Amino acid sequence: MSTLATAAALVAIATTGIIYGTDIFAALVLRPAAVGAADASVADLLGRVHEYGDRRLPAPGVIALIATALVTATSSHNAARIGGAVALAALLAWLAIYSRISAPINKQLRAAAANHTVPPDTRALQQRWDSVIWPRAALQSLALAGLLTAVLTR
Predict the structure, then answer these.
(1) 21: how many CB neighbours lie within 10 A of its CB?
(2) Are 9 and 67 in contact (CB under 8 A)?
(3) Which of 6, 19, 111, 142 has the most CB atoms within 10 Å of its CB?
(4) Pair 71, 9: CB distance under 8 Å
């Protein structure tokens, strides 16, 4: 593996790890906590969590995608290219789920928190968001596995 491909893989692992950790935390901690919380608490706290997350997490997500594409394009070993391609496909699938399901819900909860309101469908919104957090975490796990394969393949 070239120096460029190795450096890109390490950057991709670090930045993918940020999103992976966030999704795992959400699946293991935020999701079950929200289930037992009052709708007003869910709308306010998770709206604010999404306010910060949606503002701060796109940078590592974009860097992960670019670095992973670079790993795939510059790796000299076939197994490393396949690992990179698997990682890239997983990250793109994650992005599709996030864009179509999670982001619109985040936007609604952010608006509710900013306006100090509680959407009448708060519970349904949270259940819909919860329904994709484990698949998102699994895709991030797959991406990390692909990237680790790329790094460990010599």
Answers:
(1) 12
(2) yes
(3) 19
(4) yes
Handedness of CA 21, 55, 39, 129 (dihedral sign): negative
2 three-state secondary structure? coil
Q: What is the pLDDT of residues 10-45, one digit of tens each?
A: 999 999 999 999 999 999 999 999 999 999 999 999
What are the DSSP calls for 44-77, one per residue? IIIHHHHHHHHHHSHHHHHHHHHHHHHHHHH--S
pLDDT at 153: 87
What predicted TM-score, i.e. pTM, was given to this entire model? 0.94
Give the separation between CA 34 and CA 41, rounded to whole angstroms.
8
Burial class for 110, CB neighbours closer than 10 Å (0-12, 13-18, 19+): buried
